[in-house]
Amino acid sequence: MKILVTGGTGYIGSHVVTELLNQSHEVVIIDSLVNSKVSVLDSIENLTGKKPIFYHENLINFGTIEKIFKDHTFDLVIHFAGLKSVSESVEKPLLYYQQNLAGTINLLRCMQEFKVKKIIFSSSATVYGSGNEGECIETMPTGQGITNPYGKTKYMIEEILKDVCTSDPEFSAVALRYFNPVGNHSSGLLGEEPNGIPNNLMPYIMKVASGELEELSIYGNDYNTPDGTCRRDFIHVVDLANGHLAAFEVLKTPGFKTYNLGTGAPTSVLEMVNTFEKISGKPLPHKFVERRPGDLAEIWANSSKAARELNWHANLTIEDAMKDTLTFLKKHS
Fold first, then answer.
1. If phi over 0 gives left and psi between -120 and 50 gives alpha, with beta otherwise, what is residue 115?
2. Domains of the chain
3. Which of 150, 155, 178, 223 is catalytic?
4. What is the per-residue pLDDT for 196?
């Protein structure tokens, strides 16, 4: 198939593009490079022997995106592109609503114009909001108690996709709700490289391990969990990437569908630190600081629907993620 991947040079997008090329699909990438580097294309080529067609463009520029659709005939779209910092979204809500919502609307307008009827959307567990602590299943309500504009854009895009599916009985949309992606490609050629102090745990651990940051701040050690630190569902990014390919089969049936992609088992922040120390053989400097407002004690995925309908399972472990992260650090130090 010929597949358009928006945000295809980003952390998750680049792993999905690699899997697509390895399965002989033709890939076109649109990416603004806000969250990534163009050098990722070389890494993808090294891993697959193929280089995807690449456009350095932003989805908010409708005319440019429309021209790309005129120049190609796409079978489906995988949509990652969007701003993704929770804290920045609180500081700059209009930027997030403009980029994430207007960009998605432009993409869907082009799909409608050129009769592309299938899309996989990169959604998030944030759509469940602050009221759904513990195990999350797709039948739970969404959109209630979301504490930041980033999470609200994910929820709103899901609602837009529902409405498009209602308006067009041939349209098929799958929203994959990610939990906490970690790790990278086992080659060490692809990984997460955020700028500044990261929002997510694993990139923070990487920057401390590399000496770029002095120590890891763990936000709170007084939660009602076994070791007092928050627990999350950390899923290896390669398992996550394979979840997108597993969704192709259900795209054949029109309508809107949602799937959780997680391991189904939470791991605490302190357990992550201890595992990294065990795998690396070195201490990871860390300190406990005040809780962050809005952090849940624990949240994890019930992924039984993905197992049942997509025949998808998370196969890689936290230890695998740590080993792959160390390989990435060695190659990039």
1. left
2. 2-183+234-262 (3.40.50.720)
3. 150
4. 62
Q: Is 55 one of the annotated active-site residues of the chain? A: no
Q: Express each pLDDT in 14-44 by its tens digit.
A: 999 999 999 999 999 999 999 899 999 999 9
Spatial separation of the C-alpha atoms in residues 243 and 24, rounded to whole Å = 17
Distances (CA, A) of 209 to 175, 267, 276: 34, 20, 9
Q: What is the tens place of the pLDDT at every residue in 138-168?
A: 999 999 999 899 999 999 999 999 999 999 9
CB crowding 61-81: b at 16 or more within 10 Å, else e? eeeebeebbeeeebebbbbbb
Looking at residue 133, what is its pLDDT? 85
φ and ψ of 300, to 5 deg: -150, 165
pLDDT tops 90 at residue 333:
no
Q: How many helices (H) and strands (E) does the chain have?
A: 12, 15
User: What is the distance between the alpha carbons of residues 120 and 123, in angstroms, rounded to a whole number?
Assistant: 9
Instruction: Dihedral sign for Cα 179, 185, 186, 192, please.
Output: negative
Cα 306 to the chain's mean position, in Å? 16
Rounded to two decimals, what is the model's pTM?
0.96
Could you read off the pLDDT of 76-109 as tens digits, one per residue? 999 999 999 888 999 999 999 999 999 999 999 9
Report the b/e string of 117-137 with b at 16+ CB within 10 A.
bbbbbbbbbbbbbeebeebbe
Q: How far apart are CA 183 and CA 325, in angstroms?
A: 5
Q: CA-to-CA distance for 248 and 230, rounded, in angstroms?
A: 34
High-pLDDT (> 90) share of the chain, %:
89
- For residues 40 and 14, is the Cβ–Cβ distance under 8 A? yes
Sign of CA dihedral 103, 105, 109, 112: positive
